[in-house]
Amino acid sequence: MRLFDDTRQKISFFGQLFNLEKTASVIEDGNLPYPLPDNKGGGGGMHIELKNVCFTYPGAKSPKKALSNVTFTIQPGALVVIVGANGSGKTSFLKLLTRLYNPDSGTILIDGEDIRKYSMADLRQTMATLTQDHRLFPLSISENIGLGFSDKVDDEEMIRDAAAKGGAVQLIEKLDEKMKTILEPRSLQYGNHVSAGDGTLLGKELHALRKSRDVSGGERQRLVASRTFMRFNSGKIKLVAIDEPSSALDPEGELELFNNFLAAKQVNGCTMICVTHRFGHLTKHADQIICLKDGEVVEMGNHSELVALGGEYLKMYHIQARAFESDS
């Protein structure tokens, strides 16, 4: 009976996936290839410009805009940090940039062209994103990392290098199966007569599941970060977008991760956007800091310029500095 129930659940699960695949996207795709043949944006990074962008989530109960008349420009190859409290619009900006949504009004230009003109597949191939929404799959650690660049999913050396940059080596080395360890399997219920070593198909699967492993929040973030570093190997990345990736990492792990991203950025010449509500060493090294509040841009500049303004950025900076001192 348990096996029947589980099979029924799996059929339902795959039915949902099929229905999702058949659902038409409400975001109209463009047909302009990206990057443009003449590389209008210049350099290796993506040029991004927002002009009076407004956005409200579809079906939102509140009439309050997630973004309201947002205007700014990000130069190719720049390191940009977007700061603000929760609900300030930081993540909403990235969702528009990756074309999960369209703005209600205003324009987003990528390398001088309206973002809606571009092929979404082409555009997304040039982006490496790291968010808290990224998930691990019921595959081996090697496969989970390799999916960052599926053309090289079997390249062990490339995957090991990505794991090192993502800070996942220590986790991997302490596992018996190392890179072959299966992560987060969908649990199966077997009858008592099925043995893990009986040679049957179900027995083999049960044996594989026993070698599997769940991971902690910090370990998950390191593995997902490793997948993002794997993506750099495609040679197509023009934008790195990082959204609160270090919430489950200790300060040392956070510093190491960001330093590795900065090194990758320098090698590839790509534009890098970091979205955060926490202040760290990145803000002091940023070419540009965009401070959002209630969906609006309230301040822009580098760290020294915004501190000198004595406004919202400095207020948030002091709050976090006091919190750090009280914890130490």
Automatic annotation (TrEMBL):
SUPFAM superfamilies linked: P-loop containing nucleoside triphosphate hydrolases
Keyword ATP-binding set for record: yes
Residue intervals of the ABC transporter domain: 48-319
Molecular function terms from GO: ABC-type oligopeptide transporter activity; ATP binding; ATP hydrolysis activity
Transmembrane segments: none
Key words, A-Z: ATP-binding, Hydrolase, Nucleotide-binding
Record-given protein name: P-loop containing nucleoside triphosphate hydrolase protein
Organism from which the protein derives: Gymnopus androsaceus JB14
Phylogenetic classification of the source organism: Eukaryota, Fungi, Dikarya, Basidiomycota, Agaricomycotina
